[in-house]
Design brief:
- The complex is a heterodimer of chains A (100) and B (98).
- Chain A has one domain: SH3 type barrels (Roll), CATH 2.30.30.
- Chain A contains two helices and five strands, in the order αβββββα.
- Chain A has a five-stranded antiparallel sheet with strand order 4-3-2-1-5.
- By secondary structure, chain B is mainly β.
- Chain B is 5% helix and 43% strand.
- Chain B has one helix and five strands.
- A five-stranded antiparallel sheet of chain B has the order 4-3-2-1-5.
- In chain B, strand 1 and strand 2 form a beta hairpin.
- Classes of the chains: A alpha+beta (100), B mainly beta (98).
- Strand 4 of chain A pairs antiparallel with strand 5 of chain B.
Chain lengths: 100, 98
């Protein structure tokens, strides 16, 4: 759930989603869900000459399972907050596993 | 919440995990991203030959094989001569053996 919450804080930022088929799509993050499916508005394909396939498309839905990377603007990420949240999540996972 | 609800009834472009491109009207979907397309067509875009179009009719695409679903902007689409479009063959999302 951590990365779901993390992506929610990035809504309305410009990101580049690199897919596992090597195509990269730039756009404004509009929506994310529990599967980390991503919706981008106002997209442009990085290297449109190679990939004209989406020339008529402005908004996309990308299935979470095909995302390799989401390139983010570093300035937008509060790494301290992220580190804290990660430690809390790790602690709660450890205590869940320990119960067995 | 992300979702394809806004695209239902509209023209969409679906790219599949094996690198194929389909267009059609989105009739339905579910949480595993299974997709139903009406008046589906496959567009085969290659670097050196005119774009091939295959008429498929009513199609169901299994969610596992869906990579991306894009909303078609009809204004822009009508200005494109797809026959003349050239591009690389799309890659697959699963590399062999991985």
């Amino acid at each position: 759930m951590l990365f779901f919450s993390f992506f929610k804080t990035l809504i309305d930022e410009q990101v580049i989603v690199e897919l596992k088929n090597d195509m990269s799509v730039r756009g404004t993050l509009k929506s994310v869900d529990q599967f980390l499916n991503i919706k981008l508005d106002d997209v442009s394909v990085v290297d449109e000459v190679k990939y004209p396939h989406l020339s008529a498309v402005k908004n996309v839905f990308i299935r979470g399972s095909v995302v390799r990377y989401v390139h983010l603007p570093g300035a937008v990420v509060d790494t301290t907050l992220l580190e804290d949240a990660t430690r809390k999540e790790a602690a709660s996972q450890a205590s869940k596993m320990g119960g067995r | 919440m992300s979702g394809l609800a806004q695209y239902v009834g509209k023209a969409v472009v679906v790219i599949t995990s094996d690198g194929r491109l389909f267009t059609g009207i989105l009739q339905g979907y579910d949480q595993t991203t299974n997709i139903i397309l009406e008046s589906a067509k496959e567009r085969v875009i290659t670097p050196d030959a005119p774009t091939e179009v295959l008429d498929l009719g009513l199609y169901l695409l299994r969610g596992e094989s869906v990579a991306l679903c894009g909303l078609v902007d009809d204004e822009i689409d009508s200005q494109i001569d797809w026959d003349k479009v050239r591009g690389l063959r799309l890659g697959e999302t699963k590399k062999l053996g991985l």
